Amino acid sequence: MSANQFDDDEKPLDPAMLRVQKRLRRLMVIGGSTLALGIAAVMFAIVYRFFIQQPSENDEPATQGMTVPMGEVSAESVGLPAGAELLSTNVTGTVMTLAFRDGTDLVTVLVDTTTMRVSGQFRIAGGAPAPVIAP
Question: Rounded to whole angstroms, how far apart are CA atoms 35 and 115?
Fold first, then answer.
């Protein structure tokens, strides 16, 4: 037995296998090039975002030209007694939702943020009990 088993002459591949090998090489080159192009695009975007696109001092704030609703909505202004407890708030688009507890009732008030007027009110009599928060 010889010391190196790879010293033997290899038989040449038949033409069909050579064509398959050529196709595989071409597919690997195409795949590797696509991967390299994608990684380069991501790196370019990161570099552009961090180093090239810096805000200047002359840039206007994002809220410039926007109308910010100003107004006051209190429990009394929506028809709730003074002891009503605010449970949660939510703003979706131009509608602000306020959830109150009025004794045992749950009251949900919808406020239009463009006019700061009440657009709807829902009362659930004897709503769920108040949550107990452990100290």
Answer: 53
Neighbours of 98 (CB within 10 A): 21
The per-residue pLDDT string of the chain (135 residues; one tens digit each, 9 = 90 and over) reads: 455 566 567 788 899 999 999 999 999 999 999 999 999 999 999 988 888 766 666 655 555 555 556 666 666 777 777 778 888 888 888 888 888 887 788 888 888 888 878 888 888 887 655 555 554
Residue in the structure block whose two tokens are 């410039």: 64
- Give the DSSP letter string of 4-71: -GGGSPPPPPPHHHHHHHHHHHHHHHHHHHHHHHHHHHHHHHHHIIIII-PPPTTPPPTTTTPPPP--
- Three-class secondary structure of residue 96 per DSSP: strand
Q: The pTM is what?
A: 0.42
The token duo for 23 is 């196709």
Q: Domain-by-domain residue ranges, the chain?
A: 13-52, 85-124
Q: Is 133 helix (H, G, I), strand (E, B) or coil?
A: coil
